[in-house]
């Protein structure tokens, strides 16, 4: 996998558990000793635990951790830029990758027709799922401006393209990310955008969706995936992303499902 022979910086948000953690593991298994993995979480303690495990399994990999959590007011690039500048200081890279993985599902007991009664709830989800991504993206593009090859990976979902009852909060915010990054890709041809859909993986997030949605049909749909054993594993999803970026044959702005990666 030629790109991983080059010096890469890879940023993964929400990397303490589940798919984010699997990404950390898969990239760590490929990166060379001049590369750098930057892992973020709301909990420094949890993410440092991941770092320790990675250092055990892959002693040559450089890992930095950073606590990035919910912003009480609208997130800005400056919330991220200082940390990235400090961590990447005096290092030079050939490839820069950011994986926007952190997410909040929003209130799955609520219908869109009711959102207007308390838009603060939507504002919170937009802060985490859309504005934080745009803010981090700006910081990433500015800090790694000189890096010749840049990838922005947005974790998307089926529910971004097909309306699913009770998924309004996450679908509205994730749809905004998709279009925002596609416009960015047109404006910045040196940045390649990938919308990566892990399909369905058994994670804390998936279990909460199943438990919290008030829509019986949606709950049944999730249950059938579990019963029919159709879920992907987080490590397969992660390995396939690492492979996809190395192949670099996808069109910028395209949506790729983890199960379609050969
Ligand atoms: N699981 C699936 O089947 C599936 C399907 C389609 C798309 N996806 C997408 O794939 C990505 C990973 O999925 P997942 O199921 O692993 O997600 P998840 O467990 O629900 O959450 C991912 C991470 O987001 C961070 N996070 C949660 N609440 C947050 C908040 N309020 N503010 C900031 N960060 C927060 C957490 O990391 P820390 O605790 O480290 O902060 C959490 O581990 C998500 O973008 C999801 O939408 C997943």
Backbone structural class:
alpha/beta
Number of helices: 9
Beta strand %: 15-25%
The major beta sheet can be summarized as: 7 strands, parallel
Q: Assign the CATH superfamily.
A: NAD(P)-binding Rossmann-like Domain
CATH topology: Rossmann fold
Q: Show unreliable segments.
A: none
Mean pLDDT: 96
CATH architecture: 3-Layer(aba) Sandwich
What's the Cα radius of gyration?
Answer: 18 Å
Bound molecules: NADP nicotinamide-adenine-dinucleotide phosphate
| Structural domains: how many | 1
Distance between the termini: 14 Å
Structure description:
With 262 residues, this protein is α/β, with parallel strands linked by helices. The chain has one domain (2-199, 235-260): 3-Layer(aba) Sandwich (Rossmann fold). It is 46% helix and 16% strand. The chain contains nine helices and seven strands. It has a seven-stranded parallel sheet, sandwiched between helices. Helix 4 (119-143) links the parallel strand 4 (95-100) and strand 5. Helix 7 (204-212) crosses helix 8 (216-227). The longest helix has 25 residues, at 119-143. It is globular and about 50 Å long. The mean pLDDT is 96. Bound molecules: NADP nicotinamide-adenine-dinucleotide phosphate (NAP). NADP nicotinamide-adenine-dinucleotide phosphate binds at residues 14-20, 41-43, 46, 69-70, 101-104, 128, 155, 157, 197-198, 200-201, 203-206. GO terms for molecular function: sepiapterin reductase (NADP+) activity. It is found in: Cytoplasm. InterPro entries: Biopterin_syn/organic_redct (IPR051721), NAD(P)-bd_dom_sf (IPR036291), SDR_fam (IPR002347). One of its GO terms (cellular component) is cytoplasm. It holds the Pfam family adh_short.
């Amino acid at each position: 996998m030629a790109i991983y022979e080059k010096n890469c910086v890879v940023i993964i948000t929400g990397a303490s558990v589940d798919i984010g953690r699997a990404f950390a593991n898969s990239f760590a298994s490929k990166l060379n000793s001049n590369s750098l993995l930057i892992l973020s979480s709301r909990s420094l303690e949890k993410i440092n635990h991941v770092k320790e495990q990675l250092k055990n399994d892959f002693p040559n990999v450089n890992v930095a951790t950073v606590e990035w959590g919910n912003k009480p007011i609208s997130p800005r690039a400056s919330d991220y830029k200082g940390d990235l500048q400090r961590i990447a200081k005096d290092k030079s890279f050939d490839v820069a990758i950011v994986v926007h993985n952190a997410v909040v599902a929003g209130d799955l007991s609520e219908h869109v027709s009711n959102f207007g009664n308390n838009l603060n709830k939507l504002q919170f989800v937009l802060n985490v799922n859309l504005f934080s991504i745009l803010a981090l993206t700006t910081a990433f593009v500015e800090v790694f401006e000189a890096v010749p090859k840049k990838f922005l990976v947005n974790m998307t979902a089926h529910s971004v393209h097909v309306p699913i009852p009770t998924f309004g909060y996450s679908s509205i915010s994730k749809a905004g990310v998709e279009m925002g990054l596609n416009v960015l890709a047109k404006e910045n041809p040196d940045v390649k955008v990938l919308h990566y859909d892990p399909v369905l993986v058994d994670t804390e997030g998936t279990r909460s969706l199943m438990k919290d949605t008030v829509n019986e049909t949606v709950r049944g749909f999730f249950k059938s995936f579990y019963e029919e054993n159709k879920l992907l594993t987080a490590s397969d999803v992660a390995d396939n992303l690492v492979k996809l970026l190395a192949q670099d044959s996808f069109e910028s702005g395209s949506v790729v499902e983890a199960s379609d990666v050969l």
